[in-house]
Specification:
By secondary structure, this protein is an alpha/beta fold. The chain has one domain: Rossmann fold (3-Layer(aba) Sandwich). It has helices spanning 18-28, 58-66, 85-93, 104-113, 127-137, 142-156, 171-184; strands spanning 7-11, 32-34, 37-39, 53-55, 70-76, 79-84, 97-101, 118-123, 164-167. The strands form 2 sheets. The protein has a 5-stranded parallel sheet with strand order 2-7-1-8-9, with helices on both faces. Strands 4-3-6-5 form a 4-stranded mixed sheet. Helix 1 crosses helix 7 and helix 5 packs antiparallel against helix 6 (142-156). The longest helix is centred in the C-terminal third of the chain and has 15 residues, at 142-156. It is globular, with a radius of gyration of 16 Å. The structure holds adenosine-5'-diphosphate and guanosine-5'-monophosphate.
Length: 185
């Protein structure tokens, strides 16, 4: 029987650079599956259904919650987000490591269900830089940026609960730190 895959939880305030850093990690580490979440938020320009997210209605989301199809789920910035359970179980049983980019409430749920999961918190170098990155990305409305910045403060307070804290000052350096965490887990 092949070895079971490992779960890596990655959290951090929206705009801190999680996707960018993970993209760099995955250029070097290939035995991974990126968990595609379901969300009720609208796609940003360029986002594709089934690739960055499964974009679904609130009704469909509630139905999936009722049927127990999420490993975890949470509300964030007035939208719902959840990790579909099926693909995670499938990949783990195939010996593939599963990475999930999820916010802090969801991370707590996964840690409770799977204490062996490795949790990584990615922090921006500071709140001003976070705001610069969110604005620089130019994908969210002013209201959404404000909501994300407000939420960032409470998210940063959760950082000490995580197994590892990585500051994303430089994308390549931060990715290197995560590669070390993967190799030592
Ligand atoms: P998240 O996935 O955490 O929401 P993104 O990966 O979309 O964040 O990054 C938000 C913005 O910050 C993007 O425009 C990205 O290019 C930029 N960015 C990411 N990492 C860095 C970094 N280390 N230094 C400067 N800008 C960065
Ligand atoms: P965004 O809308 O900027 O893509 O994501 C907003 C926040 O939702 C980010 O902190 C991201 O990590 C989180 N998120 C994405 N997918 C999930 C999920 O399936 N579950 C939970 N709990 N959070 C998620």
């Amino acid at each position: 029987m092949s070895k079971r895959g490992r779960v890596f939880i990655v959290s951090g305030p929206s705009g801190c650079g999680k996707s960018t850093v993970l993209g760099e990690v995955f250029r070097h580490y290939k035995n991974y599956h990126f968990s595609v979440s379901a969300t009720t938020r609208a796609p940003r320009p360029g986002e594709r259904d089934g690739v960055e997210y499964f974009f679904i209605s609130e009704e469909k989301f509630d139905d999936m919650v009722e049927k127990g199809q999420f490993l975890e789920h949470a509300r964030y910035a007035k939208c719902s987000y959840g990790t579909p359970r099926g693909p995670v179980e499938e990949k783990l049983s195939q010996g593939v490591d599963v990475f999930m980019d999820i916010e802090v409430q969801g991370a707590r749920q996964v840690k409770a269900a799977m204490p062996e999961a490795v949790s990584i918190f990615i922090a921006p170098p500071g709140l001003e830089e976070l705001e610069r990155r969110l604005r620089g990305r130019a994908t969210d409305s002013e209201e959404k940026i404000r909501l994300r910045l407000e939420t960032a403060r409470t998210e940063l307070a959760e950082a000490p609960r995580y197994d590892h804290l990585v500051v994303n000052d430089d994308c390549k350096r931060a990715a290197g730190e995560i590669l070390d965490i993967i190799n030592n887990a």
